[in-house]
Write a structure and sequence with these properties.
With about 190 residues, the chain is of the alpha+beta class. The protein has helices spanning about 10-25, 55-65, 100-115, 140-150, and strands spanning about 1-5, 30-35, 40-50, 70-80, 90-95, 125-135, 155-160, 160-170, 175-185. The two termini are about 30 Å apart.
Length: about 190
């Protein structure tokens, strides 16, 4: 299975992000927009993983999130990876309990390493991917749209669970299916 660990935003945030995507959708097929069901805050991409390892992953999520209370987060602003002159990914950032989010990410990463999974040495940068740029787009036009919508703020929401997702690719794109869910609780 192709697996990843993520936090899902609530429906009202997904609805807001859908409005933002529609306001940015002037580039035609040059940008492949992520479906609302595909928007999430990835904590760890595991890739192709044997089914038998799901129990180990859940164990690592439980261990890594032990004592972590639900997080207050918000989707905020707009940006791109790697840089505006050659955008490949359009995303909105995350603010709120960032230190707690970074600590949670690091703790889950460490627990996964203990279970024999490879460490990801890339720095963690919490974000919600909105679209992937498939063909070169006018970066000035994108910059103008960012000025218009760059102050986006979803408002605070509570992230109270972590989900292990399976990703299946088909001709329409990725289909994400929850495999396991772990609730965040200061007492777990």
């Amino acid at each position: 299975m192709r697996l990843f660990i993520a936090i899902e935003p609530p429906k009202n945030v997904l609805d807001d992000l859908e409005k933002i995507k529609k306001s940015l959708d002037v580039f035609g097929k040059s940008v492949k927009w992520v479906s609302p069901q595909g928007i999430h805050l990835t904590l760890k991409f595991l890739g192709e993983t044997p089914d038998a390892r799901v129990a180990d992953i859940k164990k690592a999520i439980i261990k890594g999130s032990k004592g972590c209370a639900p997080l207050s987060l918000q989707a905020m602003g707009l940006s791109v990876f790697p840089f505006m002159e050659n955008p490949k990914v359009i995303w909105t950032g995350v603010s709120g309990d960032l230190k707690k989010l970074e600590d949670l990410h690091a703790s889950i990463e460490a627990a996964l390493v203990e279970e024999g999974f490879a460490r990801d040495d890339n720095p963690f940068r919490g974000h919600f991917t909105l679209g992937r740029v498939k063909k070169q787009i006018d970066s000035k036009k994108l910059g103008d749209l960012f000025k218009e919508h760059g102050t986006y703020d979803s408002g605070i929401f509570t992230a109270d669970q972590i989900t292990l997702f399976k990703s299946d690719l088909d001709h329409k794109g990725a289909i994400y299916t929850p495999v396991e869910t772990v609730k965040l609780s200061k007492t777990n």
